Amino acid sequence: MNRLFTATIALVLLSVSPIAAADRNPNTDWLREARVGVFMHLLPGDARGLQRVRQFDVNALASQLEAVGAKYFVLTLGQNSGFMNSPNLTYEQVAGYRPGERCSTRDLPLDLYRVLHPKGIELMLYLPCQVPNRDARAQRAFGLAQGPKDQPIDVAFAKKWAEVIHEWSARYGDKVAGWWFDGGYQWIGFNNEMAAVYAEAVKRGNPKAIVTFNPGVKLIRWTEAEDYTAGELNEPFETIPTERWVDGSQWHALTYLGSSWSKRDTRYPAKRWADWVGSVVANGGVVTLDVGPNWNPQQGPIGAISDDQMAQLRSIQARL
Questions:
Q1: What are phi and psi of 255, to 5 degrees?
Q2: What is the pLDDT of residues 22-48, one digit of tens each?
Q3: Strand locations in 15-91 (E)
Q4: Cβ(170)–Cβ(204) under 8 Å?
Q5: pTM, rounded to two decimals
Q6: Would residue 66 count as lying in a domain?
Q7: Domain count of the fold of the chain
Q8: Would you say residue 61 lies in a domain?
Q9: Which of 181, 216, 264, 281 is within CB 3.0–4.6 Å of 306 for a Cys-Cys bond?
Q10: How do 176-182 and 245-246 pair as beta strands?
Q11: CATH value at residue 229
């Protein structure tokens, strides 16, 4: 082969940046094609809350998601209180809790998968980047400072927390299509190395699972390990993509329909939501909308979406 031709080819190959390669990442294609999904903060705060997890009506929720055309659903595994929606022996052993004391004995994600999968709805999971910040016992056991706030973390901690993550990712395998990690803030020391540790723990369970790490209320590419932007937004309507990618991450926004996260009311007219979502997906973006679960058995199935929020989700579906 001509040496000049060979050198030219080599220069062309070298000019292909990592970001350009990420643009072709097929693992995010399903998310782009889904366009819109639903997020639910199901956060038990005590033993009574864990009882509600056992009562969660997965069939009722699955029917609602199907009715509004949602193609994926994101469930919180847990957050600040220390009570989890799924068993995890690793977490219980390190923190020193008995089975069922902090982790639900019901495997809610698995039960959800069994009803969502036949409807073509993907399952995703939410988890903070550190142990629950309202559980001093867990903070101490995992080597963190104690107190009701996110604590500084390092790679040594991340490797311990990654084993908790991996127990879930290994159990669910390709049943879970993606993960949204919260609290990956610069001020607690979160960085690319820690993101890579968590991403590896996830992808040991499912190599095609997509991950993101939340830097706070903004829409940016935050880590080299992420596949899509966390995109947490409080007031989203002025934020619209110009293309599908943000420095190599799939453009994605997460915001809430209600007056705040996990609320069951509505804060803006349905048309405003529908117009914004329509603009986002027309430009290659993806939107996840947070809804509030029903906790009161006197008001309907546990875990069901409110009628007002269902009406807004239907309006968005009609717009698309």
A1: -145, -175
A2: 456 889 999 999 999 999 999 999 999
A3: 36-40, 72-76
A4: yes
A5: 0.93
A6: yes
A7: 1
A8: yes
A9: 264
A10: unpaired
A11: 3.20.20.80
